[in-house]
Amino acid sequence: MRASLGALSGLITGLAALCVAELVSPAIRPEASPVTAVGGAVIDRTPPWLKDFAVRHFGTNDKLVLQLGILALLAAFAMAVGVAALRYRKAGSAAVLIFGAVGAVAAAGRPDGGPLDALPSVVGGLLGCGVLYLLTGRLALHPSRTVGVAEGKGEAHGTFDRRGFVIAATAAVAASAGAGVLGRRLNASGSAEAATVRKNIVIPRPASYARPIPAGADLRIHGLSPFTTPNKDFYRVDTALVVPKVDARNWRLRIHGKGVSKPMTVSYHDLLQRELIERDITLTCVSNQVGGPYVGNARWIGVRLADLLSEAGVKPPSEGGPADQLVARSVDGMTIGSPVDTVMDGRDAMLVLGMNGEPLPFAHGFPVRMLVPGLYGYVSACKWLTDLELTTFDDYDAYWVKRTWSRRAPIKTESRIDTPRPFASPAAGKVPVAGVAWAQHRGIAEVQVRVDGGTWHTAELAAEDSKDTWRQWKWEWAATSGSHTIEVRATDRDGYTQTDRRVGTVPNGATGWHSVVVAVT
Fold this sequence. Notes:
Blueprint: H1 2-28, H2 34-44, H3 48-58, H4 62-87, H5 89-94, H6 96-108, H7 119-138, E1 142-146, E2 156-159, H8 162-199, E3 252-257, E4 264-267, H9 268-272, E5 276-284, E6 295-304, H10 305-311, E7 325-330, E8 335-339, H11 340-343, E9 350-355, E10 358-359, E11 369-371, E12 385-391, E13 414-419, E14 429-438, E15 444-451, E16 457-458, E17 460-461, E18 471-479, E19 482-492, E20 514-520
Parallel strand pairs: 3-12
Antiparallel strand pairs: 1-2, 3-4, 5-6, 6-9, 7-8, 7-12, 9-10, 9-11, 13-14, 14-18, 15-16, 15-19, 17-18, 19-20
């Protein structure tokens, strides 16, 4: 029983340390809390294959799984320390400082961190040390009687302060819970204020509207992805354990670096006053497996990025500029590098302010994110943007490039079957096979479908909105009973047809034909 109470003491200690750190973190910033800091450090050190595994199997829940894993490890460590402290009270209690040290190093070492970020973990560790010392003191044995010790037959028995332990443990849990709740509310108050600011923003009408979506662009087939992806359904893949809630009133963007003759700092209000453009653009994540869900189409409003760079005096390398890489930095420390020539080649690269008729959602980069049609997100779509630096690919490797991904990554031509779903059981007869295909900034020219390795059939293409958006397709299949494999491939307007060679997402995007197996009844 005493060992179990020792383990319980460790758990209470861990709770106290975390909750106090949570209470201190609002004075620094929410990202300084230990679980967030350690989680961010783990993500930074996760190899690409493991990151892909997490995204593939857990999707947008990958961060929740990571946090639960960290808490589980912390709980195991805390229980072990609690049991050890029964015998080595001072040393066991001092071991709690390891928890504080790990959190402090992780927080201070984050790309967006600093020395003050270590404070919540340090305070939490110190308080946890005291809590464990107090609790294990109540579990110390006091001699009561000895049975057979002289004859070497028995053990020394004793009692501990059960009532004192219950009182101390209850008080520690109550105080910890109160500190945790208060810390959460303090962090939430800043987020709520930022949310109120966002809610009251009215984005001006664009000077250049997106053209109306062609009547035949959305085939409206059951099971087929809609042409425009609702904000709530738009994929989210990033490294932020806590979505930054930036107050647009305090947001600033700095533009500087090589070839910048007129360094600039602009506010959110400054961008709202500039000429805005509106465009339908499909985004794709490089972590998208063949047939995967990490692609979506939305209507974006923002400021032309090339105009802003030109105003700062930037010239692309093709015109003699010294910088070939534009490094975008996020408020959470993420760095993303884009080719300057691509950003300034006339495509609708922009600093985005709005998404599908509203200010950017926080999860998708509010107040400002970057977007470059035709490039995978990890080299173009920096969210929560705060800094743009002109440099060279030789001088600087951005976050994902340091982790073996390619420096340059144009989106590959891909297609996906949305309906029928894998292992579906449609009835024999006419079965609509439909899906989407994309080749941003090139456009889709043709989609073909085949069954069981037979003849390729040309699918009917939906109307094209633009070369920067995906395109729906459908094919009427005269299905017969039995198990069948359906495959799809697309050809872009440059004449390239998808290869059947299956390649994973690393280092610059997956390739291969998407296929589904169905059992026709």
